[in-house]
Amino acid sequence: MMDPIIMDLGIVALMGALATIAGAAEDLESDVGSQSNPNSQVQLAAQMDFPHRIFNKAISGEPPAYGLWCATGATVASVLLAQNMSVIFAIAIGSLAGAILLGLFAVTAHMGRTASQKRFKQPVYMDMVIGHVPSIIAHGFIAVFCIVSFSYIMDHILTHPFPLPLLAFLWGITAGAIGSSTGDVHYGAEREFQNQPFGCGLNAAYSGNIVRKAESGLRNGMDNVWACAKFGGPVTGLALGFTVFFDNWRSTVFSGMNAVIAGLIIVLILILANRLVEVQARKAYGPFKDEEGGAEA
Amino acid sequence: MIIDPISIALITLGGALIGLGVHFIPVGGAPAAMAQATGVGTGTVQLAAGAGLTGLISAGFMYNFLATSGSFTTSDFMLVLASGAVGAMIMITVTMFIGQLVYVYCVGVPPVSAKVDKDPITGDRQDIYVSKGTEGHGVPTVSFVSGTIGGLFGGMGGSLVYVQLMQIGNAPADPAVVALAGIFATGVFYVNAVLASYNIGGTIEGFHDPKFKRVPKAIISCLVASLLCAIIAVPIMGGVS
């Protein structure tokens, strides 16, 4: 007979996989629509006399936004589950409700923000609204579906005491926090400023001077998500996947104080891994100034 | 009408721990998303809440396991707090590490602090690694360790609020009590994280940052705000005799 722990580990692995997809979709959605911190530059660009065709929607910080979409999705799913609907359909319909809400906010946020920049001669491009919003909704749907799904697994199979909407709300906040902390740096520090030299932070003097021309034609949110899907999106997925997997793995395999010790060992390993990356980066890139700290090296 | 003073004191302490924890977390705000400032490229409240609430999920798991299987002792109480703290630490370390990978392998910058000339932990020279026109970038070791400590305090504070509210509710298996305690703990977390972030004013690199000296002010504000939250929360959870 199969050991129950193998079954539990399989469930935890499935949750990790769902979280990985959710994290990637969450970050890519914020790249198509330009949300969170890098959007400050998109907002600034028009004011610095650089009108552009980048979708501009900063509905709110990503964590509360995803908390809202996921809580909405999970609430609708809970109501449908209480009416004995099948789990997959209930979560899918719930996620669709969350994604449509995201679409509504995306349209109003984009139009409101862009219209308020009229005096900087930033036009509202209707073709952009029609072209970008379905992609935002689609990415949002995948993210919300995966987050509500692993919250459902946690709630019903691993028997977490929190109700499904609260659990999805909390994981939505975590997913948004991870997305805006990791993948968005690819979009903000690299993709938006490919016109600056590689291998340094953005000089504050060039703020707002974002890249406005694409590989072909004028750059928009679709071009940005194409680039960010190569690094920023997948690593964000990895971050959310690791968080969900490690946190549940330790409490599945160990119990009581051993689970706490296992968690501390994971934290210690990550501190050491970070140090290795830091040493390697310092060695590979070298200093920007000479040893006296004066002239440029 | 008597309101349990110990519960109020513990919830207030939990709020102060959250406020303290937020100051340890290295956040660079919007500038860090453009590799213009040291720390993680998001807002103070966002990252602290993400970490603390992950800890709350872990603490909820552990509390449910311990409280429904028998009597809930003081050592169980500590175990739930430890579990919440470790959950938050895992989230924050994973986020900082993956963020670091983006800074190093995607943006191509070495992690560096602009607030100190030498990393207080590793002793590495910092000032010459800061690129022109920026205030540092990435998450150097000192900031990473500081963020881990922030996760510890934040997760522990959030869990303390949750566990104490559950103890007042005295019905660990009742979904309504669990939901009420969970959402109150989330609310207390946000109140204290926002207060602390006003004190920080956008960016902080960790405990080595000069802004960290402002902590006492934040602790006093968080104590007052959490006390008010506790006075409202305890009667709602049924803590009046």
Walkthrough of the structure:
- The complex is a heterodimer of chains A (297) and B (241).
- Helices cover 69% and strands 0% of the residues of chain A.
- With 297 residues, chain A is mostly helical.
- Chain B contains seven helices and no strands.
- Chain B has helices at 5-24, 29-33, 44-67, 74-107, 141-169, 175-200, 215-236.
- Chain B is elongated, with a radius of gyration of 19 Å.
- The mean pLDDT of chain B is 92.
- Classes of the chains: A mainly alpha (297), B mainly alpha (241).
- At the A-B interface, helix 6, helix 7, helix 9 and helix 10 of A face helix 2, helix 3, helix 4, helix 5 and helix 6 of B.
Task: Offer a few descriptive terms.
heterodimer; A: 297 residues; mainly alpha; 10 helices; 0% strand; B: 241 residues; 66% helix
In short:
The complex is a heterodimer of chains A (297) and B (241). Chain A is mostly helical.
Task: Outline the secondary-structure elements.
The complex is a heterodimer of chains A (297) and B (241).
Chain A: H1 4-32, H2 39-47, H3 62-82, H4 87-115, H5 126-157, H6 164-181, H7 183-191, H8 221-228, H9 232-253, H10 257-285
Helix pairs in contact in A: 1-5, 1-6, 1-8, 1-9, 3-4, 3-5, 3-6, 4-5, 5-6, 6-9, 7-8, 7-9, 9-10
Chain B: H1 5-24, H2 29-33, H3 44-67, H4 74-107, H5 141-169, H6 175-200, H7 215-236
Radius of gyration of chain B: 19 Å
**How much helix is in the residues of chain B?**
55-70%
Indicate the low-confidence ranges of chain A by residue numbers.
none
Count helical runs of chain A: 10
For the termini of chain A, the CA-CA separation is 66 Å
Relative strand content of chain B:
under 5%
Biggest sheet of chain B: strands, sense, closure? none
- From the structure provided, what is the oligomeric state, counting identical versus distinct chains? heterodimer
Order of helices and strands of chain B: HHHHHHH
* Strands of chain B, count: 0
Alpha-beta content class of chain B: mainly alpha
Number of strands of chain A: 0
Q: Which stretches of chain B of 5+ consecutive residues score pLDDT under 50?
A: none
What is the domain total for the residues of chain B? 1
The biggest beta sheet of chain A reads: none
H and E order of chain A? HHHHHHHHHH
Shape, per Cα inertia axes of chain A:
flat
